[in-house]
Design a protein that fits this description.
By secondary structure, the protein is of the alpha/beta class. Helix content is 28%, strand content 24%. It contains five helices and eight strands, in the order βαβαββαββαββα. The strands form two sheets. Strands 2-5-1-6-7-8 form a six-stranded parallel beta sheet, with helices on both faces. A two-stranded antiparallel ribbon has the order 3-4.
């Protein structure tokens, strides 16, 4: 696939509501005809995707570098190594994603919506690059940045769709 997807990171501190925001945003974007891929950063944890004793778990435990499982409705592939965000974005694009929403990876350079739950979280605005907007649990005004309340899912979805339609390269 030659076409690059639009990429938008959702960043914030732990328990700021990133996953909840994404789970509300995804159906609105998909319903509007945008094919959405999602990448989650599990910072510092060793996530488990399968149950101990099941076949795929047993293959990983046996030392397989790559394990895939597929059915009539879905496919999952797990690699036994970390992967760079750019590689994951490319893979989701190859699978047909038009928009890749990334939860986390604060230090990466893609465009970001910053989620602020508490007033002290505002320090995050100074430590991340490529901000395109702020989503807040309270009043939050930033000069020259669009600001949304966390409950304004429709407004956030419209912002994302408009950015994709008007200037897709700004989300890449």
């Amino acid at each position: 696939m030659d076409k690059k997807p639009c990429v938008l990171q959702i960043v914030g501190y732990a328990n700021s509501g990133k996953t909840t925001l994404l789970t509300k945003l995804i159906p609105l974007l998909e319903g509007a005809g945008v094919r959405v891929g999602v990448i989650k950063h599990d910072g510092g944890h060793d996530f488990e995707w399968d149950q101990p004793g099941k076949d795929t778990w047993r293959y990983r435990e046996a030392g397989a570098s790559l394990v895939a499982i597929t059915s009539r409705t879905k496919t999952a592939i797990v690699e036994q190594r970390p992967q760079e965000l750019a590689v994951l974005v490319h893979r989701l694009a190859a699978a047909g994603a038009e928009l890749v929403l990334v939860e986390g990876f604060k230090r990466e350079g893609y465009p970001k919506l910053v989620l602020l739950r508490r007033p002290e979280d505002a320090s995050l605005l100074q430590s991340v690059s490529n901000l395109v907007g702020v989503v807040s649990w309270g009043e939050q005004k930033q000069a020259e940045l669009p600001c949304f309340h966390v409950d304004d899912i429709d407004g956030i979805a419209q912002f994302v769709k408009k950015r994709i339609e008007e200037a897709p390269q700004t989300f890449s």
